[in-house]
């Protein structure tokens, strides 16, 4: 029995060759683990790069869309301002000529004249003429005073071509229901012919825009233009 116990003790103390780790296997396992970790890191890095690229592309797309929208809105706003300015800019034209009255109308069909006030040069001594709903110029408003002024200036009885009478026209008009006011100097074109027994007759030809003026400075600008026009005709008639 003692001998068996000694043998058992010896067997128990002997090393177990099956439980000892194989260095090569451990190294291979560690290499595989390191490779797997490296692969995971590469995938993580690639994912981060792709995320950054996606965010960058998204940001660029958003900025480009915003920039195009801003440019479009700015262009539309500029077009609207130009259209509004053009709509509020009044130019009067005449329809019909060769008589003692000419009708006036806006050059733009989007404008509707409500009323007008026509002022004449101060030396003529004529009160302003008012119209409502039917813009026009009548020779009877200024014919007598104009003939007198021409006679005093010793202008010829018969005009060669069109003569010019400056007037200041204040026009109140509508554009898309919005009220506007325009003050401008116009030249009224006319011709005059003399008759031995019948006196002189004035025929209206049309109107021509000279300049836009302020309401306060309209009369002064009108008188200055009249003074410039009359001396030239006076000199020509001598």
Give an account of the 3D structure.
This protein has helices at residues 2-13, 23-87, 143-152, 218-237, and strands at residues 92-95, 101-106, 111-119, 129-132, 136-138, 163-175, 178-195, 199-212. With 238 residues, the chain is α+β, with helices and mostly antiparallel strands. The chain folds into two domains: 30-87; 92-237, no CATH class. A hairpin with a 5-residue loop joins strand 1 and strand 2 (101-106). It is rod-shaped. The N and C termini lie far apart (169 Å). Mean pLDDT is 81; it is low at 232-238.
Describe this structure in a few short sentences.
By secondary structure, the chain is α+β, with helices and mostly antiparallel strands.
Q: Give the SSE string.
A: HHEEEEEHEEEH
Structural class: alpha+beta
Average pLDDT rating? 81
Share of helical residues:
40-55%
Distance between the termini: 169 Å
Main beta-sheet annotation: 5 strands, antiparallel
| Count of all domains | 2
What does the radius of gyration come to? 49 Å
Bin the strand percentage: 25-35%
User: Any idea what the shape is?
Assistant: rod-shaped
Give the helix tally.
Answer: 4
Strand order across the largest sheet: 4-3-6-7-8
Q: What is the strand tally?
A: 8
Give the low-confidence spans: 232-238
Kindly list the characteristics that best describe this protein.
disordered C terminus, single chain, 30% strand, 8 strands, 45% helix
